[in-house]
Amino acid sequence: MSCQSWLRGRTVVFNPVPKVPVKPKRFHIGRILWTAIKRTCMVIGAIFLISAIIGVWAGSRFEKRPAPTLPNEMVLTLHMAGAFPEASGKSQYAALLNLRDELLTLDVVVDTIDRAASDNRVKALAVKASDAGYNISQLQEIRASVERFKKSGKKTIIYSESFGGSGYGLGLYYLASVFDEIWMQPVGVVAIGGVSAEMPFFKDIMDKYGVQAQFFQRKEYKNAMEYLSASGMSAASREEMQGLIENLASQLKGPIKDSRTKIAARFDALSDLGLLTDDVAVKEGLVDRLAGEDEVLDYLDTTYHDAGLISLESYASALNSAQIEKKFLGQGRSVSVAVIHVDGMIVSGSAERGPYGVSNEMAGADDIAEAIHDAGDDKRIKTIVLRINSPGGSPSASETIARAVEWVKKEKKKPVYVSMGTVAASGGYWISAPADRIYAMNSTLTGSIGVVGGKINLEQFWKKFDINWERVSVGANSGMMSMNTPFSESEQRQFEASLDNVYAHFITRVAKGRKLSPDRVEEIAKGHVWTGQQAKGNGLVDKIGSLNDVLDDVAKENGVSSRADLIVVHLPSVDDPFDILFEMLSAQAALPDFLGRLTSSVSAILHSSRLVYDPSVPDVRG
User: H or E segment at 79?
Assistant: First the structure.
């Protein structure tokens, strides 16, 4: 082919032909929305397709852990090493699906022991208790469950290296006393010297360095900052603290005497000795047998030679795996309860987004209020339970939660109950007051209806180091909260007015919620901290009982046979729902035949996921 023929009919140089202008199309919002929806669906589809591929690939490499197999006869074992955590959100669902180890939260421990009581395969319960710090309220819950277990005719044994090696063992011995047999390692001690509470006072040393604490309280028992502003206990503080520890001591000693009747008459005298050595403890009947842990295991193997030793974690996991379909794949046929946890200091905003960062010792008012609103909007949720373990916090943050409680009661007609844990004082009681019913343990520390506030004044401190602070300002009281100068007369007047205002609102909030006169509330307020037992007597608490007692009552009120048949959703969620989804995929949870039903369950889980600090509350040891 010649060059000439190849060029025939073509131009070597491009000459563009002008296009005829086209009239622009009309703006159609519908077309834009439809395009956006299509593209969004494509993105979501791509994400789930990739997730499925990853799940299948991971499933081919990792086997799903089989549910523990339980023998026909077993002895349950439990290792206690201090206070148990409260229930903690979505991670429970992963445990129920056998994707993670069962979480030994307080409710799991108590509920599993109760279920074992009626299981004919379980022959005994053996507990090893480390000599560590325990919450009295938790010990009361666990002790009650062990007592119920014993009533089924099954044996209980507890073993510890020492009951109070640190010097404080009355609480641990209180738990041990309910067991059929108490074993202790040789060289151990039994420290049952009573209950005590102490606190330091820093005013004198602060004076030496020119540091002044300027705090104001409403009222005399609201002594949260007294350790900074005074050299010792005020008369009101001593009266309050003495009353608390006497009440707590009676709660511990009384049941010990009832359970260990042989030592009941001389128990007070033994308690006065404080600490007893191993041989004396056996001689006096406080301990039944001295032995090492290996000897305890040999005894169990010999006595129950046909039974396997099964940990409470494994037993709970096996039982829960068997109930997944009943409780979680059949949610539409069950009564659902939202348990909303308020753990730690109550702060404004979100505990995750707040200035303090992420902390399990903070309860964000926005997080709690959102959980209450979501539970209110969810038609499957019939009852809301606030589980409170908080010494209080910000009054305004507490009011945010209290108003959410009022909203869900008024607008959604759903009952709200409060379950108090170890402490629900100050702001913790503020948010409890609007509830329909308040439950507390005998040893719960609650009340503290009062307010305290102020600042540290470092003016004289800076002078000692020849540091001079200068200020420019607009407004007579603009430097009110500066730590470099004391309150002026005007600043103090305005600051104390704010405390009066908070206290008045607190009294009104409690009077309205508890249906008491303001005068009656004032009598039991004044910042006074009460035990749950005392609070039941003065009208601040309705019933003595645990979270499981609350759930038992909810079951009865909704015509359900027991709390075991309730769907309990714990909020706010602490796990990312998509983390759970990916975990299910990677463990081949997406591959079994019940995929469709499981997907519905996961969808429900994902849906549900949207669902006046008082540091004076004593650290009581016993």
Answer: strand 74-80
Contact indicator for 536, 443 with CB cutoff of 8 Å? no
Whether 601 has a pLDDT exceeding 50, the answer reads no
| Residue 329 vs residues 317, 323, 552: alpha-carbon distances, Å | 17, 9, 22
Secondary structure percentages of the chain, helix, strand, coil, to 5: 45, 15, 40
Residue 418 phi, psi dihedral angles, 5° rounding: -115, 130
- CA dist 99 and 303 (Å) reads 34
Q: Is residue 306 very low, low, confident or very high in pLDDT (cuts 50, 70, 90)?
A: confident
Half-sphere exposure of 61 toward its Cβ, with a 13 Å CA cutoff?
8
Backbone phi and psi for residue 271, each to the nearest 5 degrees, phi listed first: -65, -35
Looking at this protein, which amino acid is placed at residue 199? M
pLDDT in tens, 46-69: 665 555 555 544 444 444 445 567
Q: Which amino acid is at 526?
A: K
Confidence band for 165, pLDDT divided at 50, 70 and 90: confident
- Please check whether residue 570 is in contact with residue 87, taking contact to mean a CB–CB distance below 8 angstroms: yes
Strands 362-364, 345-347: pairing is: parallel
Please count the other Cβ atoms lying within 10 Å of the Cβ belonging to residue 408: 24
Query: pLDDT: is 533 or 168 the higher one?
Result: 533
- Quick one: pLDDT at residue 12? 37
pLDDT digit string (tens) for 308-358? 999 999 998 888 765 655 555 444 456 799 999 999 999 999 886 433 333
Whole-Å CA distances, 90 to 132, 365, 563: 28, 20, 19
What is the C-alpha to C-alpha distance for residues 173 and 189, in angstroms, rounded to an integer?
A: 11
E-strand ranges in 238-335 read 275-277, 289-290, 308-311
CB 483 within 8 A of CB 431: no
* Residue 389 pLDDT class (50, 70, 90 cuts): very high
CA distances from 223 to 39, 227, 432, 443 (A): 61, 8, 21, 20
What is the set of domains in the chain, with CATH numbers?
Answer: 74-193+274-315 (3.90.226.10), 323-448+516-608 (3.90.226.10)
Using CB atoms within 10 A of its CB, is residue 517 exposed (0-12), middle (13-18) or buried (19+)? exposed
Give tens-digit pLDDT for 89-132.
444 455 545 555 556 889 889 999 999 999 999 999 999 999 87
| 189 Cα distance to chain centroid | 32
Beta-strand ranges (E) seen in 467-608 are 529-531, 543-544, 567-571
Look-up of token digits 């407004």: 475
484, with CB counted inside 10 A (0-12, 13-18, 19+), is middle
- CA–CA dist 43, 244 (Å, integer): 61
Structure tokens at 211: 């540091």
pTM more than 0.85: no
Would you say residue 302 has pLDDT above 80?
A: yes
Neighbours of 494 (CB within 10 A): 14
Q: Over range 475-493, report the average pLDDT.
A: 94
Residue 116's alpha-carbon distances to 124, 227, 395, 428, 461, in angstroms, are 9, 47, 43, 34, 62
One DSSP character per residue, 220-239 reads TT--TTHHHH-SS--HHHHH
